[in-house]
Amino acid sequence: MNTNPRKAAIIGCGYVGASIAFRFLQQGLFSQLVLLDANQDKAEGEAMDLQDGLPYGAAMEITAGGYDDIADCALVVITAGANQKPGETRLDLIGKNTAILRSIMKEITARNFGGILLLVSNPVDVLTYVAWKLSGYPPERVIGSGTVLDTARLKQSLGAELRVDSRNVHAFIIGEHGDSELAVWSEANVSGLDLEDFSCLRGRCLSAEDRERLYREVRDSGYAIIQRKGATYYGIAMAVGRIAEAIVKDEHAVLPVSVVLEGQYGLHGLALSIPSIVSRNGLQEILEIPLSREEQSALESSAGQMHEAIASLQL
């Protein structure tokens, strides 16, 4: 079946899935959007609610459907799964959400689906690897939202700290989208100016303690939001919208998506969130950016935790 480049589907219509659907409506990237959920009434209700706003948004068709409707989609976003509760880590969700993903992948692979899978459900790095393993699809067609959201949080925090537009901040969070993630301080800059130099120009020279504080705030941001409102969904919807834009517009954008590693950074047999070039065909290239010795060690430590999580699944 031919792939329709302007058609997408979202599997899972909870807070995250519905927010992503709303973001897609705002962006006008797709002419057709299909919503799927284990609760068909929920999918239909979300589709109806979004349809009401179409006269003020992009021209598109939004429907609730089934797996037969996704075969010709260019992009399928998977958000289905148990939500992270207060006190839980993302890895605590691994058993429940792997079981849910298995059932979803069985349905997807039964169709002649030729598009890109974008995993959003947590733990996203583990589930990206599971989806790749179960699907048999080439790794460029199976990616996760990774640390695109975490990276946005770091940019926003640095922008607020240095009193500069966060869109001018260039920095990455890599590794696990979770507790073992790391900030790549060695390559951070503000519009090409080294972060340390820029911070001093602003009269706010960032110390090692400042960087550690900012990192911890970014790492723990999701927990802080969940504690206050029960779930996070607006930020991840914006992040997924950014990834979708890079795919639909063939941007060749550099984004820290979750990708299957096959020797990069000396790692293999897992997926991690790594700066990569994202274009129309999904993953185009994984970038092996320079890391300090400490950052490489932290990345390997993060990878070790992912290996343990994957091994527990007995794929």
Task: Tell me about this structure.
It is a single chain. The protein has 315 residues and is α/β, with parallel strands linked by helices. Helices cover 41% and strands 21% of the residues. It contains ten helices and 14 strands. The protein has helices at 15-27, 40-51, 94-109, 124-135, 148-162, 195-201, 208-219, 221-229, 234-248, 293-311, and strands spanning 4-11, 32-36, 61-64, 73-78, 116-119, 142-144, 169-170, 173-174, 182-183, 189-190, 193-194, 253-262, 268-279, 282-286. The strands form four sheets. Strands 3-2-1-4-5-6 form a six-stranded parallel β-sheet, with helices on both faces. A hairpin with a 5-residue loop joins strand 12 and strand 13. The longest helix has 19 residues, at 293-311. 45% of the residues are buried.
Radius of gyration: 19 Å
Q: What's the mean pLDDT score?
A: 95
Count of distinct strands:
14
Order of helices and strands: EHEHEEHEHEHEEEEEHHHHEEEH
Largest sheet: 6 strands, parallel
* N-end to C-end Cα span: 29 Å
Distinct helical segment count: 10
What form results from the Cα inertia axes?
globular
